[in-house]
Every structure is written in structure tokens, then in C-alpha cells.
Fold this protein.
Amino acid sequence: MFEEVGTTTEGDLIINVGPQHPATHGVLHLVITLNGETIKNVEPHLGYIHRSIEKMCESLTYRQFIYVTSRMDYLSAHINNHACAMCVEKGMQIEVPARAQVIRVLMDELTRIASHELWWGAMAMDLGAFTPFFHAFRERESINDIMEETCGARLTMNYMVPGGVMHDLHPNFQKRVKDFIQLYKSKIHEYDEMVTGNIIFQNRMKAVGYISPEDAISYGCTGPVARGSGVSCDTRKHYPYEIYDKLEFDEVLETGGDSFARYMVRLREMQQSIRIIEQLIDNIPEGDFQAKTKAVLKLPKGEFYTKAETARGELGVYIVSEGGTTPYRIKFRSPGFSNLSALNHLVKGGKIGDLIAAMGTLDLVIPDIDR
């Protein structure tokens, strides 16, 4: 997993980390230049899981291409599909029923919590604490059960369609979501007791992997990575879609700019997602769950762009249409790619032992980066 590949003329050591390494959480290859234990440079090498997703999408219809994006950031599959569906709806000027909008937001926020739960467990495990991983999966499995009952899948749900959602909610949905909220509130104190307040964990995270607000903006960071440096960038607040402008929730900001600040952003964001779900779960409108659309969708000739806030930041969907049944060109602006570009800045001059902590707080999902 760590492989020495040589030394420079200045005596610096060059090593490989990955592409198969537990801390990279996927096939990410880092070539690291070291002077003793001090990092001089980190160069990510991509391509190990590249599948030409954008080109694949250009050969699929406007209904089919949405589901390929479940395989990018698979932990934000619902939100990826949601962003694509909104772009098609924008092009065709489809009005989404109120019931479908509420269902979509509920699913997005459950997805955000599930993603942050997995990250929290994996982050603690990266730094040597194994038990939190099981605690995180206890809550996350409850969400996966809810997803499976309504969507028929636990990871790549393929539930969002142009005009709404594929099926109506399962009759048990509201009860199971309320049960989950009760479970979450009864267990969240364990997260602070086991990890947040742990002095060893804090020493590994504080003042490690610092990035200033100016640099976070310069590298194009979004999501918890940017908000951990105090950069206000939550798409749900700045460019609200569906019903987000009618909901009460806070954009979580921390000003530390270090790994601990990014950790706290995600913990607090889960609480805001719970707050959103509580506002909606007893107020799901009656009516259609999907607008009536033509069997074959054709976007008018032109360019269309939408964006959504995934668990990792801003996902942009750009479609160029020539009026046919398939897109002429598709481009995705994924949050992971921009956040990864800041890795060298985060760790340069630090110790090799701090690389794992800093990289963990970027919450990388490699298929989102290497599309």
C-alpha cells in the first residue's frame, strides 16, 4: 500500500499511496514527495475508475442518463439524480407537483444524513477508532431500510424522474422516518462522547490541514470543505430549488479552516437536515407524485444548467441540446474534483502522519472525481 519509488537528486523520498489503500476510500493514487516525515508535494493520479460517464450520457435518452449519475457520488445518488431531473425539467419547462417536491427534499436530506453518518464512522476509523463505525451504521441502516421500502434499493435508488419521483411513498414512510428521528436524537450524544470530545482525536484534527477562506474559494471548494473555512456557499440557501426557500434551516459555517472545523460542519449539518425533515414529515401535500410528461422527452435546442447541494458540495449539470432525444453534450461539475485539488495545499509542509486526517475531512468519493 505504501511503496517507495525512488529518491530525487536532492535526497527527497518519493512514495506511492494507493491506488489500493484503506484511507483513500477508493482507487485514488497519490505520489508523495517527502523530506523525512515532512510532505513537500502530493500529486493525485486519476484514471483507475474512469468510465467516460459524460460520453455514456450523451448516447442515452433524457430519462436514461439520470441513473448513470447514481454511479458517480453513490452516497449522494438521490441528489445527483435530482439535479439531473431538474435540468431536464428546466429545459422542457415541466412544473413539478407540490407532493413530489416535498418527497424529493425529504429524500435528499435523508441521503445527506446517511452520507455524513458513513463519513463520520470512516473518519474515526481512519484515525484508529473502530467502534464508532458500528454506531454510525446503526443509524445509517435505518435510513437504508426506509429507502429500500419506498425506492426498492439501498444505495443507487434511481427514484427521481423528470417531473417528480418514480413511485409514491410507501405507507410506512412517515412512521419509519419519525422512528429514525427518535433514534437519531437518542444516540447523537454518543458521537460527541466517543469521538468529538476525545482529546486524542482533537489533537489529530485541530490545526491540521488548514485552508484559508480565500484559498478555499480559489481552489473551487464547496460543501463542508469550504464552509469549514467560513465560506458561505450552500446552494440550498443561495440558489434555492424545490421548496428550500420555504424551510427554516441554518447554513452551517465554521471559521477554523482546519480538519476539526470540517468535521464539526458535517456533524452540525446532520442536525439541520433533521430540522428540515421534521418540518416536512407531517406536511406532505396530497396530489400527484409525478407530472404528466411525454413518453419520449426532447429538450429544445439550447444550453441548460442546474445545480444542487450534495453531501459533498455543489453538483452542476450542464446540458447542450440540439433538439433530439439524447443530449449533444453533458458536463458535470462535481464537488469532489475541486475539493481534491486543494489536497496538496492542505498537507504541504505537514507531517505524513497528518495526511490521513486532512484527506479524510475532504470526504472523497473517487467515482465522483474520476468519472
Q: What stands out?
A: The mean pLDDT is 91. The first strand starts at residue 2 and ends at 7. Residues 98-126 form the longest helix (29 residues). The chain has 15 helices and eleven strands.
